[in-house]
Amino acid sequence: MTQTISYTSLANVMLEKRPADSLVAFQDDTQWQQFQHDVCELAAYLNTQPQVRWALCFADSYYFAVAFMALSHSGKHIILPGNHQPAALAELSEQFEILLHDDEVAAIANTPSLTLPFTAQARTTVSEYDLATLALDTLKLTLFTSGSSGTPKAIEKSLSGIAAEIDVLESIWGKQLQASKITSTVSHQHIYGLLFRVLWPLCSGRAFARHDLIYPEQVMAQASSDTCLISSPALLKRLVDMTATAPYRQIFSSGGPLPHTAAQHSQALFNHLPIEVFGSTETGGIGYRQQHEATTPWQLFPCHQVMLNAEQCLRLQSPFIDTKAWYQTSDQCELLPNNQFQLKGRADRIVKIEEKRISLVDVEQRLSQLAWVEEAAVLPLDEGHRLILGAVITLTPEGQQALVETGKGKLWLAIRQQLRQWLEPVGIPRRFRAVDEIPLNSQGKRQFQALVTLFSD
C-alpha cells in the first residue's frame, strides 16, 4: 500500500518533514531523504553560478524534479524546451545561457551545460543548504507552444500561477487519488506533464514514475488499482486492440480532442472514463469533463471567471494566469448553466474562400460524422491563384473496405457528395490524403507542416 502524505503547497514542499523513507519516484524507489539531499546539493552549487536562464531537458523525471526545485530555490529562471532533439535545442539556444540535462539528453555545441547526476568533480563541498519558502511571484518559468505554424513560441509564467493550479487540482481530485502512484505517457517538458506527472505528485506525496510509458503494452502492464495514468489522446487511441488486464485508479487525458470511441474503450478496459482536461500552455487548465456522451459539456475549474467577446470567444480571469487581468482566448464557446460550456472551435481556424467564411473545425466534424471516416484534419492549401481545402483522414474499417473496393477517386467523390448535406461547395475539401495516423508532435498537437507536406506533390 502506497504511503499517504499530507498535501503541501509548492512554496513549502521542500521544507516538509516527511518520513525519510517515503517514496518520491519509483522504478528505482528513490526516497524523500535522498530527494532533499539532491535538491540541497544542486541548489548550493547553482548559487555559485552566474547564469540566470537555465534550460532543463531531461528524460528522467526524478532528475528533472531535482533540477526544477533546485533552480527555484536558487532564484533562477527556468526554461523548458519542448523536446530533446539537438537541432530543436540549438534553435532555442538564444533563450537560455546554460543547459541542465541528464545522460539521456545530448549537449549541444557551443552551449555551456551541466549533467545530472553530478560527477565527483562537479559536486559542491556544501553538505547542508538551508531552503526557504519560495517567493513564487518572483520566480519565472518559460515554456514553448508550437501554435498553428509549428514555430515554437515562448510563454512566460510565474510559479505562483503554477502553484495555484496545483492547489486546485488537489482540491478536486486529491481524495480520489489518495495513496496512489503516478505513471505517465506524456513528457514533463510541457505544462500538462509538468503539473500532472511531477509537481502535483511532489506536493501531494504521490510517487511518480521516472520514465515515460511509450507502448500500449506498457500501459496495460502498469494498470493497477493504486496507479493513476497521465496520458493523451494520441496514446489512448492506440489501445483499441488491447484487452482488459486491470483497472487504473484514474486516467487523465489532455493535449487534444479525445474521440468518443477512445473514451468508451478506455472505460471498457479500465472501468473509468478518462478525465479530459482542456486548456493551453498560456492559460493552464480551463475545464474538464468525462465523455459520457460525445456532447458532454465541459466544467469550468471553480476559480475561473468567464465571458464571451463579440466573436463568441472565451475571455478568462484566472489565478493560473493573473488574479486581476482578463485573458482573451481564440476558443469559440457556448456558455451553459452551472459553469459549464461547449467548445465550438477556434476563431483562428476560420478561413475565407471566395469571400465565404469557412470553419475548418466544422468541416472536420462533418467528415468525422461519415461512416467511412474515423478522424480528420482539414487545412487550407494554396493551389495556383486560389485557396482550396485539403483533408487528411484516417478511415474506419468500413472506409478501408470501400477504398479497396472502389478506389480513391470514387471514395473521395462519395465523401464530397455526402458533405453537400451540410457544407457549401467552397467548404468541401477538394484534395484528400488517407493516413494510418494524423501526424502529431510530442505535445499531442497536430503537426501543421507535416500535414502540408502530405500534399506537396
TrEMBL record:
Pfam families: AMP-binding (PF00501). One of its GO terms (molecular function) is ligase activity. InterPro entries: AMP-bd_C_sf (IPR045851), AMP-dep_synth/lig_dom (IPR000873), ANL_N_sf (IPR042099). Residues 28-292 form the AMP-dependent synthetase/ligase domain. Keywords: Ligase. PANTHER family: ENZYME, PUTATIVE (JCVI)-RELATED, PTHR45398. This is AMP-fatty acid ligase. The lineage of its organism: Bacteria, Pseudomonadati, Pseudomonadota, Gammaproteobacteria, Vibrionales.
